[in-house]
């Protein structure tokens, strides 16, 4: 009998499991695939304040710090986290107005974002196009190599005594809890659902209707090239995220949509999205014209009806918890897992959770 | 316009496929990256070059002539970078026409659409890593055939030839004829393996005779043929200067080395067609029925990309694929009658081709012999030791190994390191089936960004509703 | 340990590396890393550089993995160069008059 079964080994499940085990619980972490191979292993790795929802800024700031110091709390595990300034730029008056409004709300939430002139923006980022008319500047930004996430967490999980079961899909949960897997039933006193876009299916096992929207995000990466930029760049519309890694490759994202769904995963790159995304990238950093694209891929991102997270107890079922659907969830992930672990252990979390009662009520009303 | 059939790749399989389709009245388009159709074995020399004809060039010219006369639309100099359509559509929508995105010779990107897609992308060479293989002067064995046959160039003046399969002796003979010195041919196979392959070759007396002739030439010129041996290391300063065989260093300025051929399955993987691991056919191959149909409706694979069977079998399998496509499109009433001849040709040629492919199958001992510090992934600089450390850290398949190490993330897209790396992962996780393969990703080949940019206006970029603050 | 050395008579025998008996277009001039070279118009760039004794095509990301032609069919990407400023694969590029080739 485990104290807790955490279902889903993405960044949410891994960090929750790790902090639970460190608090003395006997934890099993189950994933139907390998650790961090869905959203948490394929995302763009931006540790961003300018793309994070204002309500999440306090969480993201604390998580940003955690990522940069990951080796200290994760037994040396790391994701090559790099701190650097972030710029969100505007090419049109409309975008400039958008920047201003968004910067205002995020500043109120604690993100040190200031609006800067195009000339100042180009001082901060010499690679920037001269077509930029305004920019938001946040000195606290950065990026990671998300593909390392599973490798970073794994040893720490094992050291903390978490029983990690990969390739062990769960297909149902009976009260008590009996977690039904392909390899037999796992008994646990508590459960944590951490299934990314599959949270909808997992909630259904418990008879809970929690609609989760699936975003099929595309990413594009270039071959290694000489340095063309040194910040994390975005566009006010949110359609671009751009960064260059130490090895010279440039990662191009921005939430352009490909083809895919919960059942089939990220299925296919949409050529129009691919073209739109690289065009916007080269519009923003003209030196990218000289790059070669080597790979495009897709990942599934979860979103609730109000685009705010689902983190907290599952109403009506004692000892059942949920975590996921966090906008820019990679950025905030490790801190949110830590908060949920605090709540499960009966402590008052440092910052409030995002209970799902609001979403279930909405669903009932509809 | 939507074509009936699009053919990807203009080697012998693709040429025969497109010609057959056009002859039967289908609207067909063939896309080929090279300046002229021909593929690897019948690669045409550069424009303005005239090479004295031989058996291969005559076979290639004949296929090219048939293709030209067939009236098929042939677009050469077009690198296909994207595949889509077919089953790659949103849930609950009907299968779409297939789509190929390609770069035209002028560097601009364009797309073609077709109701059926025949993939004839051929193979690339397997070169298992060894110390010193990154030195300039080390090149592929199949690569050497291109250099010698299409470009009329020797890879060096003193050339060691090493690896597995019939290309060893073809390359060595060609080198000798063209005036190079060949200090040694280093064959992974023992002579008894060749003896075992002989019965299957009996169906191709022409090939058998050619092989015996090569062998005689080698003996006459005093070439050392070392059987059952491998290149243990290559060494040199700026470029290759010598190679190590057993405990003998052999001076040379070029090493042509190849350990077999690997089917190009990037497109079938991108379409999520079913694949199976068939070492004797070169590795992972799409699951096909007897008429080259993939598990995805209206998708077909032919030639060596469907499993290595050699140049003679390729045109017949291309024809089989197109006949099945025409039948499935409702454009060929007498399918049974039409397929009889190519089916027979294929079976016959595939027997000899299969025997050769078996000689070229991956030899795990070669991978086991790689020293830990040897670079396996050249693009990203990943060593054997790093791959094994990732396996020890829990990477139990190719995708996770790639994530943990970056092996295969560079511009060759895993084509160069994939076989070595997969074998290393397989040693840890219990076999190649378990190790699996890296998910098929676009672009199929690296694409220059400026080719994708075209003329675009910022206002053309579709902006969705802004996310909530 | 044995050594099969180059016989001395081989030392200076500069037998042509372009295979005889092939008719080729007239030579044109091009340059590699500032060095002027000649090759038949349309000849494959990777092949022409081998003929000129140039095998090391650049240092790439790391001298342990220099650029060099390996597969000759556009797959390995190890032969990447700049042709008139644009990235190009040597093994897929024909020579034309005045082309300026540099390492990438
Ligand atoms: C392409 C892309 C780019 C992104 N870029 C950024 C970015 O730059 N910055 C940022 O902050 N955020 C980004 N995000 C968002 C971020 O990646 C996610 O919010 C975060 O990784 C979600 O973590 P998770 O643990 O909730 O989900 P996941 O990582 O998806 O994990 C869910 C896990 O549940 C498992 N599972 C599912 N069903 C079962 C079952 N039946 N039994 C057992 N296990 C199961 C899955 O296998 C999976 O491992 C991006 C997302 C995507 C897709
Ligand atoms: C270098 C080399 C030499 C060989 N020599 C011999 C030999 O002497 N004898 C023998 O029996 N076998 C030989 N083989 C094996 C060879 O694969 C086949 O015998 C034969 O060429 C197979 O024909 P195919 O049509 O299947 O593929 P190929 O001849 O390989 O043709 C595939 C074609 O597809 C094109 N292509 C691939 N991807 C794309 C893309 N994304 N966009 C556009 N075009 C694309 C390629 O340019 C190529 O022309 C050789 C293989 C190689 C690699
Ligand atoms: S030699 Fe391999 S791509 Fe040019």
Q: What does this entry look like structurally?
A:
The complex is a heterotrimer of chains A (366), B (469) and C (104). Chain A has 366 residues and is of the alpha/beta class. Chain A has helices spanning 11-22, 39-42, 57-68, 70-73, 93-108, 118-124, 149-159, 199-205, 271-284, 329-344, 357-365; strands at residues 2-7, 27-30, 82-90, 114-116, 134-143, 163-165, 170-174, 178-181, 184-193, 213-222, 232-235, 241-244, 250-253, 259-261, 265-268, 292-303, 310-313, 320-324. Chain A has two domains: 2-41 and 148-211 and 306-365, FAD/NAD(P)-binding domain; 84-140 and 213-303, 2-Layer Sandwich (D-Amino Acid Oxidase, Chain A, domain 2). Chain A contains eleven helices and 18 strands. In chain A, strands 1, 2, 6, 7, 8, 9, 17 and 18 form an eight-stranded mixed sheet that branches. An eight-stranded mixed sheet of chain A has the order 4-5-3-11-12-13-10-16, sandwiched between helices. The longest helix of chain A has 16 residues, at 93-108. Chain B is α/β, with parallel strands linked by helices and 469 residues long. Chain B has helices spanning 12-23, 55-70, 141-150, 167-177, 191-201, 205-220, 266-270, 313-328, 335-359, 364-368, 384-392, 398-405, 418-429, 432-435, 449-453, and strands at residues 2-8, 28-31, 73-75, 79-86, 96-103, 109-119, 123-125, 138-140, 159-163, 184-187, 224-227, 231-236, 240-245, 248-251, 254-258, 261-263, 275-278, 283-286, 299-301, 375-377, 382-383, 447-448. In chain B, helix 4 packs across helix 6 and helix 5 runs antiparallel to helix 9 (335-359). Chain C has 104 residues and is mostly beta strands. In chain C, strand 4 (80-83) and strand 5 form a beta hairpin. The longest helix of chain C is centred in the middle third of the chain and has 7 residues, at 45-51. Chain C starts with a strand and ends with a strand. Residues 8-13 of chain C have low confidence and may be disordered. The chains are: A alpha/beta (366), B alpha/beta (469), C mainly beta (104). Chains in contact: A-B, A-C, B-C. Chain A binds chain C through residues 224, 247-248, 290, 292, and chain C through 61, 86-87. Strand 14 of chain B pairs parallel with strand 1 (2-4) of chain C, so a sheet runs across the interface. The structure holds flavin-adenine dinucleotide (FAD) (2 copies) and FE2/S2 (inorganic) cluster. One flavin-adenine dinucleotide (FAD) binds next to helix 1, helix 2, strand 10, strand 16 and helix 10 of chain A.
């Amino acid at each position: 009998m485990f104290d807790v079964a955490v279902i889903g080994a993405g960044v949410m499940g891994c960090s929750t499991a790790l902090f639970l085990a460190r608090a003395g619980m006997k934890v099993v972490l189950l994933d139907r695939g390998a650790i961090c191979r869905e959203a948490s292993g394929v995302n763009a790795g931006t540790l961003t304040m300018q793309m994070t929802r204002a309500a999440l800024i306090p969480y993201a700031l604390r998580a940003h710090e955690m990522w940069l110091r990951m080796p200290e709390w994760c037994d040396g595990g790391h994701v090559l986290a790099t701190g650097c300034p972030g710029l969100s730029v505007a090419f049109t008056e409309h975008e400039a107005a958008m920047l201003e409004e968004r910067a205002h709300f995020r500043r109120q939430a604690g993100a040190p974002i200031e609006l800067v002139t195009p000339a100042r923006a180009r001082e901060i980022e010499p690679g920037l196009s001269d077509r930029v008319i305004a920019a938001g500047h946040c000195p606290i930004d950065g990026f990671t190599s998300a593909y390392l996430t599973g490798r970073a967490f794994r040893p720490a999980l094992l050291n903390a005594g978490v029983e990690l079961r990969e390739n062990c899909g769960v297909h149902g949960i009976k009260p008590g809890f009996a977690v039904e897997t392909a390899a037999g039933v796992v008994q646990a006193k508590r459960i944590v659902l951490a299934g990314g876009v599959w949270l909808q299916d997992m909630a259904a096992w418990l008879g809970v209707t929690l609609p989760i929207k699936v975003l099929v995000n595309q990413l594009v990466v270039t071959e290694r090239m000489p340095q063309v930029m040194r910040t994390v760049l975005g566009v006010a519309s949110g359609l671009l995220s751009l960064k260059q890694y130490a090895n010279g490759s440039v990662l191009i994202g921005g939430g352009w949509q490909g083809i895919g769904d919960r059942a089939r995963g990220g299925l296919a790159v949409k050529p129009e999205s691919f073209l739109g995304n690289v065009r916007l990238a080269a519009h923003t950093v003209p030196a990218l014209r000289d790059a070669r694209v080597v790979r495009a891929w897709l990942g599934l991102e979860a979103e609730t009806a109000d685009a705010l997270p689902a983190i907290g107890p599952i109403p009506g079922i004692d000892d059942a918890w949920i975590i996921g659907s966090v906008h820019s969830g990679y950025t905030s992930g490790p801190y949110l897992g830590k908060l949920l672990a605090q709540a499960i252990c009966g402590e008052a979390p440092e910052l409030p959770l995002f209970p799902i009662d609001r979403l279930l009520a909405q669903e009932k009303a509809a | 316009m939507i074509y009936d059939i699009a053919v990807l790749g203009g080697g012998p399989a693709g040429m025969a496929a497109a010609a057959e389709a056009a002859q039967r009245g289908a609207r067909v388009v063939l896309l080929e990256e090279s300046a002229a159709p021909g593929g690897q074995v019948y690669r045409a020399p550069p424009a303005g070059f005239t090479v004295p004809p031989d058996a291969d060039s005559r076979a290639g010219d004949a296929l090219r002539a048939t293709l030209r006369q067939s009236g098929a639309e042939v677009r050469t100099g077009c690198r296909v970078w994207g595949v889509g359509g077919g089953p790659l559509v949103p849930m609950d929508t009907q299968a779409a026409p297939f789509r190929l995105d390609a770069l035209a010779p002028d560097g601009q990107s364009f797309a073609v659409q077709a109701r059926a897609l025949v993939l004839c992308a051929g193979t690339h060479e397997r070169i298992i890593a060894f110390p010193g293989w990154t030195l300039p002067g080390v090149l592929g064995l199949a690569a050497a055939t291109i250099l010698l046959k299409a470009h009329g160039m020797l890879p060096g003046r003193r050339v060691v030839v090493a690896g597995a399969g019939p290309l060893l002796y073809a390359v060595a003979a060609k080198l000798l004829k063209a005036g190079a010195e060949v200090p040694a041919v280093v064959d992974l196979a023992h002579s008894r393996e060749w003896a075992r392959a002989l019965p299957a070759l009996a169906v191709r007396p022409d090939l058998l005779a050619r092989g015996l002739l090569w062998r005689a030439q080698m003996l006459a010129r005093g070439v050392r043929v070392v059987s059952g041996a491998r290149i243990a290391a290559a060494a040199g300063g700026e470029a290759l200067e010598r190679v190590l065989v057993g405990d003998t260093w052999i001076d040379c300025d070029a090493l042509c080395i190849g350990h077999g051929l690997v089917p190009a399955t990037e497109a079938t993987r991108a379409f999520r067609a079913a694949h199976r691991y068939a070492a004797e056919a070169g590795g992972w191959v799409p699951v096909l029925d007897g008429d080259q149909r993939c598990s995805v409706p209206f998708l077909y694979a032919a030639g060596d990309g469907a499993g290595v069977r050699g140049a003679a079998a390729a045109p017949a399998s291309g024809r089989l694929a197109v006949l099945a496509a025409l039948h499935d499109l409702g454009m060929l009433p007498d399918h049974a009658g039409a397929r009889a001849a190519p089916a027979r040709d294929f079976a016959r040629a595939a027997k000899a081709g299969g025997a050769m492919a078996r000689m070229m199958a991956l030899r795990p001992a070669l991978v086991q012999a790689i020293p830990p510090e040897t670079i396996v992934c050249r693009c990203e600089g990943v060593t054997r030791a790093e791959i094994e450390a990732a396996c020890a850290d829990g990477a139990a398949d190719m995708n996770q190994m790639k994530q943990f190490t970056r092996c295969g993330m560079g511009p060759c897209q895993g084509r160069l390191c994939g076989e070595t790396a997969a074998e290393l992962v397989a040693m840890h996780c219990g076999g190649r089936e378990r190790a699996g393969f890296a998910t098929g990703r676009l672009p199929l080949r690296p694409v220059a960004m400026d080719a994708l940019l075209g003329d675009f206006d910022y206002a053309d970029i579709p902006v969705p509703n802004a996310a909530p603050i | 340990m044995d050594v099969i050395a180059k016989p001395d008579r081989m030392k200076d025998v500069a037998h042509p590396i372009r295979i005889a008996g092939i008719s080729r277009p007239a030579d044109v001039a091009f340059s590699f890393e500032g060095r002027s070279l000649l090759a038949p118009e349309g000849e494959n760039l990777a092949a022409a550089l081998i003929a000129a004794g140039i095998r090391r095509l650049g240092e790439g990301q790391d001298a342990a993995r220099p650029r060099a032609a390996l597969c000759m069919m556009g797959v390995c990407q190890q032969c990447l160069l700049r042709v008139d400023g644009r990235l190009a694969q040597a093994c897929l590029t024909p020579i034309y008059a005045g082309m300026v080739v540099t390492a990438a």
